[in-house]
Design brief:
alpha+beta; 3 domains; 9 helices; 16 strands; Apple domain-containing protein
Length: 421
């Protein structure tokens, strides 16, 4: 079982035997994960090699620092470098490699040291960390999926409610129309039957009276007339009652229909307000997107100084060689100021490569709100290399740089984003 765990950790290339998140936390946050206190220390495994780390220390005499975003990345650089046995890494994402196995450390609070050891990895502990990391990732995916399903369910629910309301209203109107038609037909049928029965009864009685005696004709005639009058009155009563019932049914139907129409109008008004609210939200998102697109420089003309051939031709050298007579440039709608022969610090540097000119770096910086400015060295610039100063405290500190012109440091920065001194 131990061999299987060790093989899994070796194939995945990373494990920890100390802090639960030291060698698995990405970016600058890994420093705090490794060093919750200035005296923290521990061990972690990189590609089957156990590294010991100690917080608050720095190994002097190492190679020039290279960029490493985390403790894990610095340890990986040392592991794949044949002559490396030790290294130092800072919270500012710098990594310095050493060939010595046991160099003398210096106490520096913002650094930690790494040393290769001959220890065997602890596969069970490393596997536990991998399992914990997989559980965190699974929980995150589960939360995302639940949120998506909830949104889809709410949308489906609204759709089904709207459909049910429409169907109910349609069926209600259909039922009312059918009931009114049936009531009118039944009323007419009842009236016809009543009149037919009355006429039949009258004729039978009249025939009987004639058969009994002609002498009783007057009496029979009188009686018939009386009965006919009564029948006519009954028919009139029936017609009046039927008309009253029809009028009452129609009035009730109209009242119910009016109520339902008012309810539908209210629902339509609510839906219209909801639609207007959603439309206003979408229009605001569109405007924000357009504002963001505008801030990135799209459709904005650069200033004349940023188009001066004396400044932009071979800008790695010309911007600070004396041939460019401008100190202020507007690129992508953002104003920049030039400051030559100075080294810059207090910002987080990003190394940019394969840029065609300083103005290419400046244009890219203009579109990134966190970018305070761009620095360059002429001898590196001809290889397309510049470095962007990203915001940390919103200020940049400069010191004079004196040396060969091709090795001088220069700066072009955004005054509205950074204070420079």
């Amino acid at each position: 079982m131990h061999f299987t765990f060790y093989l899994l950790v070796t194939l995945l290339g990373v494990g920890t035997t100390a802090s639960a998140t030291c060698f698995t936390t990405a970016g600058p946050a890994s420093f705090k994960a490794c060093c919750p206190t200035p005296q923290s220390s521990g061990k972690g495994t990189i590609s089957g090699v156990v590294f010991k780390y100690t917080c608050g220390q720095f190994f002097n005499g190492g190679e020039s620092p290279i960029s490493a975003s985390s403790v894990k990345e610095c340890a990986e650089e040392c592991q794949k470098t044949p002559h490396c046995n030790s290294a130092s890494w800072s919270a500012k994402q710098k990594c310095s490699l050493l060939g010595e196995k046991y160099p003398a450390p210096m106490k520096v609070g913002s650094w930690l040291t790494l040393q290769k050891t001959a220890e065997e990895p602890d596969p069970e502990q490393d596997c536990k960390e991998l399992v914990d990391a997989a559980k965190r990732e699974a929980e995150s995916k589960c939360t995302t999926e639940k949120d998506r399903l909830q949104r889809e369910g709410e949308t489906q629910c609204r759709t089904e409610k709207d459909t049910a309301l429409t169907n109910a209203n349609t069926q209600c109107q259909k039922d009312k129309d059918t009931a009114l038609t049936n009531a009118n037909a039944q009323c007419q049928k009842d009236k016809d039957a009543a009149l037919a029965n009355a006429n039949s009864q009258c004729a039978a009685e009249k025939d009987k009276l004639r058969a009994e005696a002609d002498t009783d004709a007057q009496q029979a005639q009188s009686q018939c007339t009386t009965e006919k009058d009564q029948l006519r009155q009954q028919a009139d009563t029936v017609r009046t009652q039927c008309q009253s019932e029809k009028d009452t049914a129609l009035t009730n139907s109209n009242s119910q229909c009016t109520t339902e129409k008012d309810q539908l109008r209210q629902q339509l008004a609510d839906a219209a307000r909801q639609r207007d609210t959603e439309r206003d939200g979408l229009q605001k998102q569109l405007k924000d997107a357009q504002d963001k697109a505008g801030a990135s420089g799209g459709g904005i003309t650069d200033s004349a100084s940023a188009q001066d051939s004396a400044c932009i031709n071979n800008s790695w050298n010309s911007l600070c060689s004396g041939s460019c007579g401008h100190d202020t440039f507007t690129v992508g709608g953002v104003e920049f100021k030039r400051k030559c022969n100075v080294s810059t610090r207090d910002g987080r540097e990003e190394q940019w490569y394969d840029r065609s000119s300083v103005m290419d770096c400046v244009r890219e910086c203009a579109g990134i709100k966190a970018c305070l400015g761009v620095g360059w060295i002429a001898s590196q610039g001809v290889k397309g290399h510049c470095h962007a100063h990203m915001t940390v405290s919103g200020r940049l500190r400069t010191t004079p740089s004196r040396g060969h012109p091709l090795n001088e440091h220069h700066l072009i920065y955004v005054p509205t984003r950074a204070s420079v001194w």
